[in-house]
Amino acid sequence: MNNSESRELTLEATVENLSAVNAFIDDFLDAVGCPGRSHMQLSLVIEEIFVNVASYAYAPNTGKVTVKIAITREPLSAKIIFIDSGRPYNPLEAKEPDIDAPIEERNIGGLGIFLVKKNVDEVNYEFADGKNIFTIFKKL
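Request: output the structure for the sequence above.
Response:
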């Protein structure tokens, strides 16, 4: 592998395809020797983002999602991009959940993107050319 290598997968944005996305990402992370903790954190993040796209981007219909992953060796890091043509939605604008409030007083939702932010080094969203582009970056 050179200093950087990338792969991409395009498939229907359905919850049933989560296992295919996980296998695609897991195989690549295993091939580059991703440390266990980082691998687990990325798995959590990927599931959260993909399930959100599958559940909401095209609802009640379905559409395509492209998942791109790029690994850089020096230093070892991963950049993962989710691209869909669903309705525009920036999850980074969601209000941060009050994790200190008692459970019965907490609002529903918002915890997923909170977990995404806590488990990666950078997150970015843009809507360009009719597409939602959600990017995560993590040092491995």
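The helical segments are 18-31, 36-57, 111-119.
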